[in-house]
Amino acid sequence: MKNHLAKQKPVHTWTISDVGEWLCKNGFSQYKELFCDKHKIDGLALITLTIEDLRQPPVQIPVLGDIKRILAKIKTLRSENSCFDSNASPKGKLNLKKLSVSQSSSSCSDEDEINSFSADCTDYVNPRKMSPLEEDMKNAVVSVYFRTFVSFIYMLAVFLLASFTLAVVHDRLPNTSDYPPLPDVFLEAIPFMPWAFYLCEVCGSIMLFFWCIIIIFHKHRLVVFRRSCALAGTIFLFRCFTMYVTSLSVPGKHLDCSPTKYGTFYNRLIRALEIFTGCGMALQGVRTCGDYMFSGHTATLTLLNFFVNEYTPRRWYYLHTFCWLLNIFGIFFILAAHEHYSIDVLISFYITSRLFMYYHTLASAVQISPSDDRRRRFWFPLFWFFEYGGPLVIKNEFECLCPTGKCWSVKAKKRLPILVSTFLLNGGLYHINLLF
């Protein structure tokens, strides 16, 4: 009987002689020496053969028709045995599955065999079908819009938590009469400038304006926006812990800070909403105390500066230089206003810059070596979720969103960097004119 061996015992338990018998019964006796004597192909090796194995060295069958017929017979073997025999041991199942994943995936990717073997390869690698709930969850994770929405909600939730933490740490503020300002080299050297803190927020507003324009016109705007929300949320989540665990005394006697001002939960919640709606900015009339380790204004300035420099072409050096100046002068204005200790600013700059670089370095490393997905999912769950299935290393290309749907690339417009830089600088000057 032609398929006697397949019905008698599972194909992955065949010996080399069984494979030779199968070749002879199916009309491939001329390849018995090649398969059995030379390459020692048993049943497990037989059903993991792909078109590339038969076409390329060392097997390299010269007749295309024989390659197609052998693959068709192997496909029949797989379907008759369902890749795993019900009476086979669990150990045999596991070994067969592990050895066949890489081979079957390469077979499925071949253009000549994708139509005839795609369904077979899917069942062969993963015979268990997903439930509708699992499919919905997978589609939701893969959805770019869903992950972008989650990143935005994550950032808003962290900002609200940070606002509530600000109200809590205000009540834990040390008494200014018992705990005077700590010695600080920079604060002692820089005279107090009451207007400097407002200029710091103007620098941040200008870079935020730049960043919004970049997100709107960037070709990969969803990826850029998602990374902005993810990094901002993570940095300020860490800031919530550092603010709460250690309460430093006020850095200057000019600050009107009295502890136990928002003692009840209701008062703290109302204060948190005031800080949240005012974005924690003095320009919006929000003044906070106790949030010294580490500086949120420095983190915002640094993060905006790094994002603008990362997601704009290198030849936009005028814009890059201007953003670095805004970052540096913004930090100087924070110290000149005596709103933070120097250590607050230095640690904030270090944490923000390192986290930004680590995130993008990890994205580049995953792009080069996409293996170890399970380990990455365990150690970097947020990174895995926000970057799952999306482009990791993106090109800085821009497009104009117009009603007709026609878009043009920045590469086709040589003068666009000059025009955009001029437009952004004019927007920054407009913000300064509004202040004064």
TrEMBL record:
The chain crosses the membrane at residues 144-169, 195-217, 229-246, 316-335, 347-366, 415-432. GO terms for biological process: ceramide biosynthetic process. One of its GO terms (cellular component) is plasma membrane. Its main location: membrane. Residues 14-80 form the SAM domain. The keyword Cell inner membrane does not apply. SMART domains: SAM. Keywords: Lipid metabolism, Membrane, Sphingolipid metabolism, Transferase, Transmembrane, Transmembrane helix. Gene3D superfamilies: Transcription Factor, Ets-1. It is found in: Membrane. GO terms for molecular function: ceramide cholinephosphotransferase activity; sphingomyelin synthase activity. It holds the Pfam family SAM_1. It is a multi-pass membrane protein. Belongs to the sphingomyelin synthase family. PANTHER family: SPHINGOMYELIN SYNTHASE-RELATED PROTEIN 1, SPHINGOMYELIN SYNTHETASE. This is Sphingomyelin synthase-related protein 1. The gene is SAMD8.
